[in-house]
Design goal:
Length: about 170
């Protein structure tokens, strides 16, 4: 990579580190190309991205950003997974690491907060933003549904009483 290419790479990485909410760092030594493509596909489906970059360029790019705490993790064959959703990248990375022992999660960062391996795993257990939104909509809709049931309940009870009297008279 020439000097101009390195500058563009550092600028792109710096943009990633300033705009994303969570970054996960992992070793990928031993993963096949097919496994790496599968990881990229799973991350893409969850709204996250995976990138392999030179450690030196990553260290230059994170200098002065909120995620500068991951500089110590950038040793060996590392990849970074990142997403705007604070749960998407950790969730996919942890699930993929369970199936493939070649992917070893080292840690990460969420804003200024440094994450160790256990923190990344705990973050992966949280529901995603879409799941939280769905729960919230369900909670908002529940009272309206119950109110509708209550307003129709007296009429239904009356209909059952009339049906019971009709059956009694017919017998």
């Amino acid at each position: 990579m020439d000097r101009e290419g390195k500058k563009k790479s550092v600028a792109a990485l710096n943009e990633v580190f300033t705009k994303t909410s969570v970054v996960v760092v992992a070793h990928y030594k031993g993963l096949t190309v097919a496994q790496m493509q599968n990881l990229r596909k799973q991350m893409g489906a969850a709204g996250a991205k995976v990138q392999v970059a030179k450690n030196r360029l990553v260290k230059i790019a994170i200098d002065g950003t909120d995620t500068s705490s991951i500089a110590d993790l950038m040793k060996g064959p590392t990849l970074i997974a990142y997403s705007d959703d604070p749960v998407a990248a950790p969730k996919v990375a942890v699930a993929f690491a369970k199936d493939n022992d070649k992917l070893v999660i080292l840690g990460g960062a969420m804003g200024r907060t440094a994450l160790d391996v256990n923190a990344v795993k705990n973050l992966a257990t949280l529901p995603s933003l879409d799941e939280l939104r769905a729960k919230l909509v369900g909670l908002i809709q529940a009272p309206a549904t119950k109110l509708a049931q209550l307003t129709t309940a007296p009429a239904a009870k009356l209909a059952r009483v009339f049906a019971a009297y009709a059956d009694k008279d017919a017998a």
